[in-house]
TrEMBL record:
It holds the Pfam family SQS_PSY. Keywords: Membrane, Transferase, Transmembrane, Transmembrane helix. This is Phytoene/squalene synthase family protein. The keyword Signal does not apply. PROSITE patterns: SQUALEN_PHYTOEN_SYN_1, SQUALEN_PHYTOEN_SYN_2. The chain crosses the membrane at residues 127-148.
Length: 309
C-alpha cells in the first residue's frame, strides 16, 4: 500500500470503528478509494470542529478562515493542481479517478459552513438540509466510489437516504454532548413543544425530555434506513454487504439510545462487538435478498421523502 492509502486506513480505523469494519468487506480497490474519501471527509470535519479524528471537540477562533481554506484546497484538488497536503492528494486521486462531481464535494463543506455560522434548525426539513451537507452527500459520493454512475439519480437518492439516517442517529446519540459544545441540532419547534430551553438540554433533570427528542429523531431516521435498503440491489455484492452491515450497525445505535431512555447520556452509546458481528451477518443476508429482487425485476418505489438529489 502507498503512504496515502496507509494514512487513510489509519484515519478510518481511529475515526470510525463501525465504518472501518464495514469497509473491510469491500473489494480491495473499492476499500482503498472509500478509505481515502473518508479520510478527506473526516479531515474537513476535524478542521472545523477543532478535533482529532472525530474526538475532543474544542472551540475554533479562526473557523471562517479554515472554512475558506477547505473550499480553496478542495477546488484546487478537483482542478488537478498538485496538493501539498496528503489528505487532499488522496481525495484528488479518488475524486478524479471515480468522477465525483465538484458540487458534491463542495456541498459537504457547505454543511460544515452551517456549523461555522451557528445555524439553528426550526423544523425537521431544515435539519435534513444540514444532514444532506454533512452526511447525505457523503452517501452519494461513496456510492459513486462503489461504481454507481454519477447520473444514476435513483440509486444516488437511496445512498443519500442512508447518510440522512446515519446523521439523524448521530444527532440523537450526541444531543447532550453537542449541547455542551454549543451545537444544537434538534428542531427548535420540537423544543418549544416540550417547553425545553436550549440551555436545559444538558440538565440531568430534563433527561426524560431529551430521551423523547432522541426517540423522535430515531423514528424520523427509520424511513430513510428503509429506503436505503432498496439501493443495495444496484451495488456489487461485496459493496452491498458492506453497506448493509454499516446500515445495521448505525441503526442499532439509534435503537440502543431509545432503549436506554434517560440513561443514554450517562456514557456514550456504542454497539457491542457481538451486535456488530450479528449486524454484519444480517447485512450479508439483506444484500443477497436485494440481489434476488434485482433478478426478479422488482423495483420498489422510493417513498415521498425529503431529497436534495
Amino acid at each position: 500500500m502507498s503512504d496515502l492509502e496507509l494514512q487513510s486506513r489509519e484515519a478510518i480505523q481511529k475515526g470510525s470503528k463501525s465504518f472501518a469494519a464495514a469497509a473491510a468487506l469491500f473489494d480491495a480497490q473499492t476499500r482503498v478509494d472509500a478509505e481515502m474519501l473518508y479520510a478527506w471527509c473526516r479531515h474537513c470535519d476535524d478542521v472545523i470542529d477543532g478535533q482529532t479524528l472525530g474526538h475532543g471537540m474544542s472551540p475554533v477562533a479562526d473557523a471562517p478562515a479554515r472554512l475558506e481554506a477547505l473550499y480553496a484546497q478542495t477546488r484546487a484538488a478537483l482542478a488537478g493542481e498538485t496538493p501539498t497536503d496528503p489528505v487532499f492528494a488522496a481525495f484528488q486521486a479518488v475524486a478524479l479517478g471515480r468522477g465525483i462531481p465538484e458540487r458534491y464535494a463542495l456541498d459537504l463543506i457547505d454543511g460544515f459552513a452551517m456549523d461555522v455560522e451557528g445555524r439553528s434548525y426550526e423544523t425537521l426539513e431544515d435539519l435534513l438540509a444540514y444532514c444532506w451537507g454533512v452526511a447525505g452527500v457523503v452517501g452519494a459520493m461513496m456510492a459513486i466510489v462503489m461504481g454507481v454512475p454519477p447520473d444514476d439519480l435513483p440509486t444516488l437518492r437511496r445512498a443519500q437516504d442512508l447518510g440522512l439516517g446515519f446523521q439523524l442517529t448521530n444527532i440523537a446519540r450526541d444531543i447532550v454532548e453537542d449541547a455542551r459544545n454549543d451545537r444544537v441540532y434538534v428542531p427548535r419547534a420540537w423544543l418549544a413543544e416540550l417547553d425545553l430551553p436550549v440551555e436545559q438540554l444538558t440538565d440531568p433533570a430534563r433527561r426524560d425530555d431529551v430521551a423523547a427528542l432522541a426517540r423522535r429523531l430515531v423514528e424520523a431516521a427509520e424511513p430513510y434506513y428503509a429506503s436505503a435498503r432498496w439501493g443495495l440491489r444496484d451495488l456489487p455484492v461485496r459493496s452491498a454487504w458492506a453497506i448493509a452491515a454499516a446500515r445495521g450497525v448505525y441503526r442499532q445505535i439509534g435503537l440502543d439510545v431509545v432503549a436506554a431512555g434517560g440513561a443514554a447520556w450517562d456514557e456514550r452509546v456504542v454497539v457491542s462487538g457481538r451486535k456488530k458481528a450479528w449486524r454484519a451477518l444480517e447485512g450479508g443476508i439483506v444484500a443477497l435478498r436485494s440481489a434476488t429482487l434485482d433478478r426478479l425485476g422488482k423495483t420498489p418505489q422510493r417513498p415521498a421523502l425529503w431529497s436534495k438529489i
